[in-house]
Amino acid sequence: MANTKSAKKATRQMVRRTEVNKNRRSAVKTDVRKVEEAIASGDKNAAQAALKSAQPSLARTSQKGIMHRKTASRKVSRLAQRIKAMA
């Protein structure tokens, strides 16, 4: 258990940041799932629109350090590749 005042504050901050990061990670998963569903349905326009909205959120999570930047880049690349293959 934290004894010092600074350690108690650090614990409070950690809890708060963990909650924010969970929400951000969840939002990204939702965005990626929307792209996956559009690809599965075979609607190329909807898939492109979904990817366009998912790209900034993936970039933001990598920028904030929630996700590694190469992981975010890889996800965007693979989704774009799958959408391109729909033609």
Overall description:
- Helices cover 84% and strands 0% of the residues.
- The protein is mainly α and 87 residues long.
- The chain has a single domain, classed as Ribosomal protein S20 (Methane Monooxygenase Hydroxylase, Chain G, domain 1), CATH 1.20.58.110.
- α2 packs antiparallel against α3.
- The chain is elongated.
- The model has no long low-confidence stretch (mean pLDDT 95).
Give the SSE layout:
Layout: H1 5-41, H2 44-63, H3 69-84
Helix pairs in contact: 1-2, 1-3, 2-3
Summarize the structure.
By secondary structure, the chain is mostly helical. Helix content is 84%, strand content 0%. The protein has helices at residues 5-41, 44-63, 69-84.
From the structure above, extract its key features.
single chain; elongated; Methane Monooxygenase Hydroxylase, Chain G, domain 1
